[in-house]
Amino acid sequence: MKLKLTPTVEDALVVTLAEAKAYIRVESELEDDLITEFIKAATSRVESECFRLLTPHTVTALYSTPRLTGDDLFVLTSYNDPDNIHAGIALSKIPVGEVTSISTIDLAGTDVELEDADWYYNEVLGSIQWTTNGVYYNTVDYPYLEVIYTAGYDYEESVSSVPTDIKTAIKIVIADMYECRSSDIIYLATRASTLLAKYRAPQYAG
């Protein structure tokens, strides 16, 4: 699977500069640029720990359809097996906002969008599921499947809806980076890891 992540909000910060400075007790503006870099690095580190997108993105996922089993797909026994709860496509970037389109793509790169009636997003399984009618197409002529969806927490008027525990974990990581004067930290503090435990999502291939 290939992924393309496009931010929908430029320079979105889960933890603001003011929040970070208050947490690490810094009042001077001399290190604002450094602290901002630590905010971004800490957010990225926490995203990797939780397998989540913390800021809003549009995700374009390209799947190879001839290989009906593999790391990036659930056990895809067929495209028209409504009794098999695993007959679907796992979306690896969460939280998922909205699935906007699913298309088949031929070798020339021409895409054909599937009808909305052919599929639905199952929030419990975190995957695209096919309807009872099934989805039929020639996977030799159309070897790729493209799914476009939005993912990440809402971000409005510079305020993020990321859960408080995750934001606190980011602040702890920022503090460690500031103390070490480096964004290259090997281990998360125990308190940060504990706060993130319930937010860790299953790790998919992409």
Write the SSE topology.
Elements: E1 2-7, H1 17-24, H2 32-50, E2 57-64, E3 88-90, E4 96-105, E5 111-113, E6 119-122, E7 127-130, E8 144-151, E9 155-156, E10 159-160, H3 164-180, H4 190-196
Antiparallel strand pairs: 1-2, 2-8, 3-7, 4-5, 4-8, 6-7, 9-10
Helix pairs in contact: 1-3, 2-3, 3-4
Detailed description of the structure:
The protein has helices at 17-24, 32-50, 164-180, 190-196, and strands spanning 2-7, 57-64, 88-90, 96-105, 111-113, 119-122, 127-130, 144-151, 155-156, 159-160. With 206 residues, the chain is of the alpha+beta class. A hairpin with a 4-residue loop joins strand 6 (119-122) and strand 7 (127-130). Helix 1 packs across helix 3 and helix 3 (164-180) packs antiparallel against helix 4. It is elongated and about 60 Å long. Residues 66-86 have low confidence and may be disordered.
Structural class computed from helices and strand pairing = alpha+beta
What is the typical, i.e. mean, pLDDT? 82
Counted beta strands:
10
Low-confidence blocks of residues: 66-86
**Taking strands numbered 1, 2, ... along the chain, how are they ordered across the largest sheet?**
1-2-8-4-5
> In what range is the share of β-strand residues?
15-25%
Order of helices and strands: EHHEEEEEEEEEHH
Q: Using the CA coordinates, give the radius of gyration.
A: 20 Å
Task: Explain briefly what this protein structure is.
The protein has four helices and ten strands. The chain has helices at 17-24, 32-50, 164-180, 190-196, and strands spanning 2-7, 57-64, 88-90, 96-105, 111-113, 119-122, 127-130, 144-151, 155-156, 159-160. The termini are close together.
